[in-house]
Amino acid sequence: MLTKENIKELKAKGNDDIAFLIRENLKSNKYILNILENLGRLPNDFDGSWLPELLENKSQQVRYWVVKNLGKISSDQNLDTLINVLNCEEDTTVRREAVSSIGRMRNPKAQNILIQILNDKDPKVIIQAIRGLLIFKGNERIDNCLKELINHENEMIRTVIYKEYFANTKDKTNQQPHSKSYDFLKNVIVNGDVREILRSIPEESFHLTFTSPPYYNARDYSIYPSYQAYLDFLNEVFLEVFKKTKEGRFLIVNTSPIIIPRISRSHSSKRYPIPFDLHPYLVNMGWEFIDDIIWLKPEASVKNRNAGFLQHRKPIGYKPNAITEYLMVYRKQTDKLIDWNIKQYNWKTIKESKVEDGYETSNVWRIDPKFDKTHSAVFPVELCKRVVEYYSFKGDLVFDPFGGSGTLGRTAKSLNRYFFLTEIEKKYFEYMKSFLTKDTIFNELSSKFLTYPEFKKTIIT
Asked: Cα(256)–Cα(265) distance, rounded to whole angstroms?
């Protein structure tokens, strides 16, 4: 098998030897791929006339690499070959690479071809054509053709066009720098309606929100007149959270389907799929779905739903024990990539915030639940620790709109983040307040426990 250096030497001499070796080894796709994958940059005088011969090869990989190398040769003749590939090839990966190769040629003659490709049925092919045309951005005809795609049925195409032509740059003159947060929000717990509290603070205040909303009519503190009223309430809350979240930063919602018990044996219980019903609300308000993480609990820690089925074993009566909850991960929509968010921090902060070895590599987190005499639904510290470490930097402001027992606040501060919590229930507010004397983390960091009227007096914008 030829090495990369061997192929480089052959290429420097001209490509007669390469063409000869290819033709001598047509039955060995492994040999052919080794050459095609290692051709690298091709000189202007490179004769690639032998490449199209391989487009009849049955291997998709061989055809893909042929097309990729044809794109490195600026030849009008190759345009016709690539158009033929686009029209005749069945494999979508090879078709996309054909369009990419046409674009990489940066040949003005390819403009008409790329414009025609905008009508293709494959959205990924169209996106490759858009990439090729954006090289000529500023050309009135091309700009007009691309702008028309703002109404395309595919969401990825609309997103690309919006970013390139229609996104408005916000005036952030009076806003905090991305890595900073307002001092009056740091290490503060407010007793009041989260919706009112959020409406009173500046936009783009939080770096991360992690919360577990109250479950629909499952606790005394979470009674709503209807399931729709419950979803409408969460919609109000998370819309305000969206406004107060910094550009491109994260919201993580921990929830799970909930069962409302039947009122008698002649009626059925009702199971509400909260995470799935909440999801479209979040996406519609501007949160971009990123990941779903499964919180896996020991089976012994959950309510047994399997007892009846264990006795009768009759089909359609099966009810599994619910040992999972969802952590749904969302990012505030932005035209900027994650790298932009990271670059807003200095190197010292980035280095000190680096996640240590031993982090969870899968989306299944095996963590024991926490039980508390005062609060019936408490975050385990380990759950908070992972979320805070994986989705924020040291010095960031972490928010929980349903503060509960304050676990997120204590965990955030132990990891050198600031916290801001809201809690409408007076008894849980007082419960958190008790940590002023019992919890050294709260005590040393001078946490503030305020009513909403008291909090309003501290706001500085």
From this structure: 25
Please give the Cα distance from 308 to 306 (Å, whole number): 6
Superfamily of domain 183-456: Vaccinia Virus protein VP39 (3.40.50.150)
- Residue 229 near residue 186 (C-beta atoms within 8 A): no
CA neighbor of 444 nearest in space, from 452, 456, 436, 432: 436
CATH placement of domain 4-166: 1.25.10.10
The three-state secondary structure class of 229 is: helix
* pLDDT band, residue 373 (cuts 50/70/90): low
All residues at 6 or more sequence positions from 251 whose CB lies less than 8 Å from its CB, including other chains = 208, 209, 238, 241, 242, 245, 282, 287, 329, 330, 331, 332
Handedness of CA 234, 235, 236, 238 (dihedral sign): positive
3-state secondary structure at position 1: coil
Estimate to the nearest angstrom the gap between the alpha carbon of 60 and the chain centroid. 31
Domain ranges of the chain: 4-166, 183-456
Residue 375 has pLDDT above 50, yes or no: no
pTM over 0.90: no
What would the mean pLDDT of 279-304 be, rounded to a whole number?
Answer: 92
